[in-house]
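Team,

Forwarding the record for the chain on the shared tracking sheet. I've put the sequence and predicted structure together so nobody has to dig through attachments.
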Amino acid sequence: MVTRYHGSYLAPAEELVGVQVRDFKYLPISAGDHYSQIISCARRESILPAVDNATALPSSDRQAEHTKRKAVLVVSLNGEYYEKLSSLYYEHGAAGGAAVSVFQPTHLGVQHSEERQHNQKALAELVLLSFSDVIITSAQSTFGYVSQGLAGLRPWVLMIPVDRKVPDPPCRLARTIEPCFMKAPHYDCRTSKRADNGNMVPHVRQCEDVSHGVQLVE
């Protein structure tokens, strides 16, 4: 799946943008607001171009005029983010003449980690994300942590919603490619007391997306 999908859809692009989106029930936000957060992050950080609000050119004319081919790989259980992002650039085109194509290998709807085929598809998507030149990931997502590690990239992390709304800023550039250890003990053996485990030793700090977790930093 990886070789076939990458060769057919992603390899022709000059830049690959990975977008990994995970919806958590304990971090409620509507799909519409979550999509707005992705777009806000991508445009604010110049990851994706703005759209041309003029009438879109025929596809052959757009290809003749484009300055850069950019592929967007959306990885999510939900197909709505892909559909909206794909429609956005299909209906309007990218400002500046860039050619933006949007792809999503699967949208399974619900996670079934007990099924081998489901896990195989998830692994394939992790590997596809590793080819990204820029990657956007969801806060507190272990799938996102693995994706950024395989890609060797500091991700733009979509921060957790505030009161069910898009936070400000919508995303932050992580300070490291390392994953977050979300269940780290808060205990100092030297004092036999609870302590801030993000300030006990060099190169270990609290995670930006999980206040009680720690990660390695340079």
